[in-house]
Amino acid sequence: MSRRLAIGIDIGGTKVAGGVVDETGAITHRTRRDTPHRSTSPSVVENTIVESVEELLRQVDPDDVVAVGIGAAGFVAEDRATVVFAPHLSWRNEPLRAALSQRIHLPITVDNDANAAAWAEACFGAARGESHVVVITLGTGIGGALIIDGHVERGRHGIAGEFGHMQIMPGGIRCECGNRGCWEQYASGNALVREARAMIEAGSPVVADLLARLGGDAAALTGPFITEAAREGDPTARELLADIGEWLGIGLANLASAFDPGLFVIGGGVSAADEMLIGPAREAFRRQLPGRGYRPEARIVRAVLGSDAGLIGAAELARAGR
Predict the structure, then answer these.
(1) Residues 116 and 170 in one domain
(2) Is 290 left (phi over 0), alpha (psi -120 to 50) or beta?
(3) Cβ pair 266, 138 in contact under 8 A
(4) CA angle at residue 167 from 225 to 304, to 5 degrees?
(5) pLDDT tens digits, residue range 37-76?
(6) Is 191 in the same domain as 279?
(7) 80: helix, coil or strand?
(8) 245: domain range?
């Protein structure tokens, strides 16, 4: 009997992850490439996608693969075919599905990467059984998605869920989207690393241990490094994560006012910090929630599918034709 496999491709700010996904959400085969960062030609990223799909098709019976889903880190139009704008890539009104369909001869679905991750968590992960969910993905920036009564709410123009570009600090830090003070400039992986480097550049003695762990090379600082240092008890790393968590909680309180979800699911690479991040986020959320003490309070939990959520969800959206 033929298997109904689907390929999911998750395009982030730093990596293009791909996988063959079965109907239970299990990944049977994988591939990974670096994102062609800041490429001036959209075709370079498209080549990377095609190479990933071709590699995966060689690992399975291609007759078993029914569709390909692309989760793109950008604004995807309501046609589910065009990437309107990608802050971390070169796509501007890019007809991605049409370009890929010339080279990949399978049905192709394009969606925002956070929508894909949210769908995976709704089908197979932390959001199963919850009717109203906001999913936040913390990585290079902040992605977001909204699940209402079993479907992804994409908005009139397909661009709902871009919560990372809510302005929470007027006149604040410049964002790659063109505005200032966006949420992702305060509660993302980039923000975490930027704040740590700022402390190092200022010569603050409180980062001496963290800098020593790097062998004195501040350029080698990464978000995962900070998280690992925090797990090992570094007080500055823990403080940095708590600061990011506080900004996260403030943004979640704003979203609770707008959408009144029953559950927030926090995913993305930065969520690996777990309670060192989510604990401070819950505290800030409770302090900032309008009507606190007199209204039901949404739960805040960590996603369970980790970095696989985007490709799993992209594959499932494509298989189901959602």
Answers:
(1) no
(2) beta
(3) yes
(4) 45
(5) 655 577 888 999 999 999 999 999 999 999 999 999 889 9
(6) yes
(7) coil
(8) 128-304
